Amino acid sequence: MITKSERFLNKIENSNLDLSNLNDLDSFLEVYEEFSRRLTDLQKMRESMDESGYTAPYRSLNRYGSSFSGEAEGEEITEINRHMQYFRMKASAKNNSFDRVKSAIDAHRIAIGNLDEYAKIRCKKCSKSYRVSSFIDRNKICKCGCEDFEFKVNHHGIHRLEIIPYLPLSGNYMVLMSGLSYWGRESFKRILNILQQKRKGVVKTVSPVIRIYDNGREVRKRVSLDSEFADSYEEEVRRRYGKNVRIERLEFHRTKPSVINDKNTRTALALAYARHSEDIIKKYEQEFLEENFDNLDKLEIYDKIQESVVFENPDFIEDSDDLEEWREEKIQEYLKEFGLIDKYGNLNHNLSKDIKKRDKIRSEVFANIGPTLIIWDLFKYYLCTSKDRRKRYGSPFPYVRGDIDRQQRKIFQNPHRDVVKFLQEKNN
To answer: Does this model's pTM top 0.85?
Structure first.
């Protein structure tokens, strides 16, 4: 099963779906149906894994303990340890494979949700419009019996098709995370913080610790009560254990659901928006920097020196600490050669100022592009859809809460005006 899932996920990773012509009905349906087929296969794969115990692969290791009887021979202990190592490796492979399948499922749901929001398919005869999912469920036949349709973009839908190529569709989210730039990783973390914003806790269970007499002995006991007894826990405890029961301690267990209440979905969305924002930056970074700096020449020389030395690895140096020291000396040598430091090793004043300014741009503008985009899309989603619709239809945000409380609405307080200005000017 592990081999089968890895082969299927690698096939998804190596496939090249053409997303360049989605305004053509046939091309759009081809892409949508391919995503739907993949999702169906992935869900079947997950069900098979559930049935085979992939949800708790390490449980089988409990059958083998690390403590042995005093009479156990050294060879026997070695043999048991060898078996434990084998089962541990097998359990790890199951866990990783199951994790990839779950990630791929959520990534496909996000892609399908965006596609479903993007399109309207209109009957040429009666002009009735259908969502893509409804259109396919009706076997591509209108209520009037017509089979001739045209494609229309749903300008009122909540969609961002640009993120689809950046989703971990093959469940390879760890690989994609490792490829993020510095500000891409920062953007990823900030998006996760937005999606993890928790609402005010709701009482799920109440756990009073009580003291009662049982056969003449005083016994301490923990009782679990459902949320319906949050305000009447004392009466319920006395009803169950008598009037003489004594409540020593009381614990309320609360649920604090996030804006998007699923870990894999949050990761997939954060990755897609962060990688999409990196693509925007690559297109416009140089132009934006030229507009904000009078002279980039020294900054570019400084960058080239840093990049060239970091990959140098001379054979005569073996110790890592010595290598770092050698690289630092080499950087200083090059900087001095180009007149970027003085005789005391201090950076040129204007260069130092430009480095700080660029770091600030990367932190406050570049790293906030992804968070600003997803905040806007979430805001539009809650503003333009009813609670009923959010319950009935899928969305580009699987597992999103139907409504959010005052605490969670703070995510829409986005003060990054420079980012909004950048997107308006560069990414219309």
So the answer is: no
